Amino acid sequence: MLKIHKQDFHRLHDYLWEIPTTFHPAMNVPVWVFADEDLLDDALDDLSIPQAVNVAQLPGLVGQVIVMPDVHQGYGMPIGGVMAARVPGGIISPGAIGYDINCGVRVLASEIPLEAAHPYLSDLASALYRNCPSGVGEKGSVPLSDAELDQVCRQGAQWALAHGYAQPDDLMRTEEFGCLAGADPSCASHRAKERGKGQLGTLGAGNHFLEVDQVAQVFDPQAAAIMGLHEGCLAVQIHCGSRGFGHQICTDYVQSFQFAVARYGISLPDRELVCAPIDSEEGQSYLKAMKAAANYAFANRQVLAWHARRSFQDVFGPEGSELRQVYDIAHNMGKLETHTIAGAPLQVCVHRKGATRAFGPGFAGLPAEYQALGQPVLVPGSMGTESWVLLGTAESDRLSFGSSCHGAGRVMSRARAKREVRGDRLRADLEHEGIAVRAGSLPGLAEEAPQAYKNVSRVVEVVNRAGIARKVARLCPVAVIKG
Predict the structure, then answer these.
(1) Whole-structure pTM value
(2) How many domains does the chain contain in total?
(3) Which residues are catalytic?
(4) Which one of 67, 96, 115, 178 is separated from 79 by 20 to 30 angstroms, measured CA to CA?
């Protein structure tokens, strides 16, 4: 793997650094890194920047490879990376989208003040843990037949609405309105479908969670009011994806694309970046399967939102069911979009892996009430720390293919976190801070310890000062549900 040092960067401004194409003869586009001095040092501690340089060598890329301040090493492409390939003439890469296709975040807002809810937080945490299955391989409450799974894959959150798990406003406040057109479940393997049939409406394990937060601070009162965020009141975050269904799809296509690379004569700097021409039979098959997994994930978060509303109603009565969706965004996705490249509009496939779409005001894919604001950008922190609600900007369209950060970003491996942190002590520490914790696995809890992650507020400060997203509200946890 390449060795990269701080002196190899050109500093474009205080929060943007460039590795030019002159750094390596095989680079087709430069690498842009959004970071302050310390976060850049963190990024250089693992292989995330060399991985980004490898990505820049893929054929058919345009613009630049983008690295977000929450970046860390991933499979092939770093988590916190963005690349755009021309359509047609470019490639699509499963490893540059990620194994958990359409892993994403949904935020729901209430008008229930924390002060009034505080005596019931333990009951609420227990209700959420009981109603929202979590953990490795956990089965959901909505088992699907083969035909029903195909419907979920084609319809996404629209399927959930038709089956009573959604309110119409939920879909309006979901990226792509909760459904990617062109999904084809026949492009997913039998094994993938078997894994997906029993997991709809589940959180899973790892860094997935359901969290109850207090809206602790509002930075833009007008935007927050439109979004339904009220200072001092409760909100809910749901972070999960396409479960075993999406993971198996990625696994299958990473394997089959090994042959596509040879067939099309593609030279790779790293075999984890296997890819195929996006307009090839293989590329189109993966794109259709990826969309099927993305729609499954939209439906999954929608069913979990229904369970969250039911849990709030169990504890708070009818008022509890009035959780209004703020937004739902993906952060592992490949999307066909039009961006301005060298002064001209160009259709590209934007790969966002551990990065969120962050389009500015006027984007037609937003509900009417958000047109003047821009797209909400939801940035969860590490367990027990604050999270953020941001808005995308016009500058992000110019600088980062309309993209921003997705979270805090790991600085410690899961194995190291389990060695250094005891799950029982972590739970006790969180509860001492007033955070109710429900977790199925103490080692799993230790993996997600706050010290295993970067400071999310520092990450947010970078994207805010760089101009690719702006602050609306800060959330602080009062209850955490983990697998």
Answers:
(1) 0.96
(2) 1
(3) 406
(4) 178
